[in-house]
Amino acid sequence: MINSTLSSLTSSDGSAIAVETTGYGAPVILIGGAFNDRSTVAALASTLAPRLTAVTYDRRGRGGSADLSGDYAIGREIDDLATVIEHVGGTAGVFGHSSGAALALEGVLRGLPIERVAVYEMPAVVDGNRPEPPADVFHRLVARIEAGDLDAAAELFLTEQVGVPAPIVAGMRNSPVWEFLRAQAHSLPYDVAVCGSRLRLQTDRYATIDIPALVVNGDQTWPWIQTAAQALAAAIPAARREVLSGEEHDILGKPARLEPLLTEFFS
């Protein structure tokens, strides 16, 4: 059995960041997306651990991590990621899922010591592949969170930012998973912020990335996500794209599908 080590780090603004390290070899930081804490990437960490040092952490305001700022600035999450990278030796590979992919790429763009970056299904609007979210989603999210209405915040994010049909969200509200989603809802403005204004693909910025990049998506996911992955891979000069047959957005529950790609890429 491979043991895990749980640490509490201090980010630049004094917020405690919970970090878990498992395995041996080159360090790879695993970042979950919206509604995710480190528990949602734990299975992937365990799958990678025999050949890589898998590092998971609670993004600020989630799980064991605090958020002393409350301003939802992208720079806060970049500082947290920098703190985690320093903790594991000063350089690392990074894998991000969904909005965690946007955070991973933003870390590269802002000059963090990331050697390789892999992303799975970063949400982005490109060439009209889906309607853009309303421009005021961020501010309405913050207002609902400040009013203490986390159910409304989660529903707003799912329907208007992600584009999940309202009847499906209504069904989710009556399912056991809703309490977990609700518990993460106060951190959703960070996901909106890191994905950029109205989810628009930042092609010009991604064209400046000069490290090896792996862009992955499933062939059964939403068509707009597949278009986004194709455009993202085309924008990053050193990117390689892989499409997983039969897979959708919820890949973290199937770590064996990602393991060969990530192990080969990061080893």
UniProtKB/TrEMBL annotation:
SUPFAM superfamilies: alpha/beta-Hydrolases. Keywords: Hydrolase. Gene3D superfamilies: alpha/beta hydrolase. Residues 29-258 form the AB hydrolase-1 domain. It holds the Pfam family Abhydrolase_6. GO terms for molecular function: hydrolase activity. This is Alpha/beta hydrolase. It comes from Nocardia stercoris. The lineage of its organism: Bacteria, Bacillati, Actinomycetota, Actinomycetes, Mycobacteriales.
